[in-house]
Write a structure and sequence with these properties.
The complex is a heterodimer of chains A (120) and B (237). With 120 residues, chain A is mainly α. Helices cover 54% and strands 0% of the residues of chain A. Chain A starts with 23 loop residues before the first helix and ends in a 23-residue tail after the last helix. Chain A is built from four helices and no strands. Chain A has helices at residues 24-36, 41-53, 55-81, 86-97. The longest helix of chain B has 23 residues, at 50-72. By secondary structure, chain B is mainly α. The chains are: A mainly alpha (120), B mainly alpha (237). The structure holds zinc ion (ZN). Zinc ion (ZN) binds at residues 3, 24, 27, 50, 54, 56-57 of chain A.
Chain lengths: 120, 237
């Protein structure tokens, strides 16, 4: 392997801020903090050194970022394509006219309000 | 589950702060949440102008429906959530704060409506996310180091196919992870707003988001490997 190894058989990868980014596991664990820009400078330097020395982790970082972009694209494109369904628009307008928002005050002038939970 | 239906407006309105997300990894241009013409819109709504109601419903519904569908999957549930959100917003216009964006306000109500609906329905059988996370040996090395990907080019047919594959993969994530991924990466809420919307801690949001992204990467891995290479990560059961 090209990346630096930790020889401890059970390294304690708690995020205490004091442990070097010495293994791939730690590197992958810190990925989100690295991308959020919340790694302390020393930790960030260690992280980047690991990436430089470890092609699989570097690849994983790129694929992790690609995954975020792919997810956004997959979800965003959907909204642009579809026109609003007329049946839904009509249902919303009808439900509204049936006594909810400030339409006809007359609809809500019965004693004790209209019986729904609309505070009238 | 015991959540009432329809969900009461005050509950839907009890939402997270409207802080914008300024994360470093969101690059996709957003479809606007706001209606194009907001001149006196809230005033017109408050005065009961039917034209204003119809305008805002038409302007906002496509995006709201797409958002609700991401959380709920089913078209019918998504339509219910959109309707609940509009009715809740319209009857609580007096609670809308001047200076805010009315589209953003209604969109947040919609997210709450969708999340409440998601919580109220029976949980489907969900695979454990652990199977989709990278595994490491006792020295901290990946058991299946990442292999190169061939990402699709600009060909529109290929791009459509990719979107379908990615959507299906996202839909297959367990609810708890899918919702965080959608709120953070797609809806672009910040960590605090996501935590408030879900009633969990910001740390839990970060952990779930990281796991959700890793699991999604694992699900996409076989699709983007060059042909003839063996998948390195376990497939979902
Ligand atoms: Zn590594």
């Amino acid at each position: 392997m090209s990346c630096s190894r930790s020889n401890k058989p059970d390294n304690d990868a708690e995020h205490t801020g004091s442990i070097a980014v010495s293994t791939c596991q730690e590197c992958i664990d810190f990925l989100i903090d690295y991308l959020d820009g919340t790694l302390p400078p020393a930790k960030k330097a260690e992280f980047e050194l690991h990436l430089e020395l470890c092609p699989p982790c570097h690849r994983y970082l790129n694929q992790y970022q690609a995954t975020i972009r792919l997810g956004q694209h997959a979800m965003e494109e959907e909204a642009a394509k579809n026109p609003p369904p007329e049946a839904l628009i009509n249902a919303i307008m009808a439900a509204m006219k049936a006594g909810h928002p400030g339409k006809d005050p007359g609809e809500h002038d019965a004693p004790g309000g209209c019986g729904c939970d609309c505070d009238r | 589950m015991t959540h009432p239906f329809p969900i009461s407006a005050p509950t839907l309105l009890n939402f997270f702060p409207l802080s914008p997300y300024h994360g470093s990894v969101t690059t996709v241009p957003r479809i606007p949440v706001e209606p194009p013409d907001q001149t006196n819109l809230v005033e017109r709504l408050r005065s009961g102008d039917a034209g204003a109601y119809e305008q805002i419903v038409r302007d906002l519904t496509p995006r709201m429906l797409a958002t609700a569908k991401r959380f709920l999957g089913s078209e019918a549930d998504a339509e219910d959530a959109v309707q609940e959100a509009f009715l809740s917003a319209f009857k609580n216009l007096d609670k809308f704060q001047e200076g805010s964006q009315v589209g953003t306000w209604i969109h947040r109500i919609l997210i709450n409506a969708a999340l409440m609906k998601l919580r109220s329905r029976n949980r489907r059988h969900e695979a454990a996310i652990e199977d989709l996370l990278p595994k490491f040996d006792s020295t901290g090395h990946a058991e299946n180091p990442a292999q190169p990907w061939n990402l699709p080019g600009p060909d529109p047919i290929q791009a459509d196919e990719t979107r379908r594959v990615v959507r299906e993969a996202i839909e297959s994530l367990p609810d708890a992870y899918r919702t965080v991924l959608i709120l953070r990466d797609v809806e672009q809420l910040d960590t605090e707003s996501t935590a408030a919307a879900l009633g969990i801690t910001p740390n839990a949001v970060k952990t779930r988001l990281h796991r959700a992204r890793q699991a999604l990467r694992t699900l996409l891995d076989p699709h983007f490997r060059p042909e003839h290479s063996e998948p390195s990560d376990p497939q979902p059961s």
